[in-house]
Amino acid sequence: MLLYSQSQQTLSIKPMTYFQTGATSARVTPTEWPPLNIFIRESGRQTFPVADLVYLQAVANYSWLNWVDGRRMLMPRTLKFYAPKLPTELFVRLHRNCVVNKRFVTRLERTDAGGLVHLSTGEVLPISRRRWVTVRRQLMSNLPHLN
């Protein structure tokens, strides 16, 4: 946003910043990623570490957040709301309705309908045919044990 000020018949343009960061070149590691602030009706606002989030699954305009301790939360937001809040180094989109944490992937399986991701929690999630190559490449580069 630009602010305009006129003083003594000169027009000067001043850039306006909404936030500043301490070090612009240093990347934030996934363990230092800001936690998700979630409002829970019974207990109020709580923060949860992003690294403990196993996967998110969309159902209409709601999202299920599945955590490492087995807890599931139904939130009244879409995946489009949560996706920018997640580190791309940790999370990959499998399907139009599913985003998974790469740390919990144990195995990939190719099927006629696309593929499957097996998680360390025992759950199996589908990969769309269109995203199979991209997902496989992202997971193989970060997790060599999936070969």
Summarize the structure in words.
With 147 residues, this protein is mainly β. The chain has a single domain, classed as LytTr DNA-binding domain (OB fold (Dihydrolipoamide Acetyltransferase, E2P), Beta Barrel), CATH 2.40.50. The protein is built from 2 helices and 12 strands; from the N terminus they run βββββββαβββββα. The longest helix has 11 residues, at 132-142.
Task: Set out the fold topology.
Layout: E1 2-7, E2 10-15, E3 36-40, E4 44-48, E5 53-59, E6 62-67, E7 72-75, H1 79-82, E8 91-95, E9 98-101, E10 105-111, E11 114-119, E12 124-128, H2 132-142
Antiparallel strand pairs: 1-2, 3-4, 5-6, 5-9, 6-7, 8-9, 10-11, 11-12
Number of strands: 12
Arithmetic mean of pLDDT: 77
Task: Find the CATH superfamily.
Answer: LytTr DNA-binding domain
Query: Termini separation (Å)?
Result: 48 Å
* Secondary-structure element order, N to C: EEEEEEEHEEEEEH
Our Rg estimate from Cα atoms comes to 20 Å
What oligomeric state do the depicted chains represent?
A: single chain
Q: Residue share in helices?
A: 10-25%
Discrete helix count: 2
Kindly provide the name of the CATH class. Answer: Mainly Beta
What ranges have pLDDT less than 50 throughout 5 or more consecutive residues? 1-28
| Amount of beta strand | 35-45%
Looking across the biggest beta sheet, what order are the strands in? 7-6-5-9-8
The biggest beta sheet reads:
5 strands, antiparallel
> What fold name goes in the CATH topology slot?
OB fold (Dihydrolipoamide Acetyltransferase, E2P)
The CATH architecture category equals Beta Barrel
Count of the domains: 1
Q: SS-based structural class?
A: mainly beta
Shape: globular
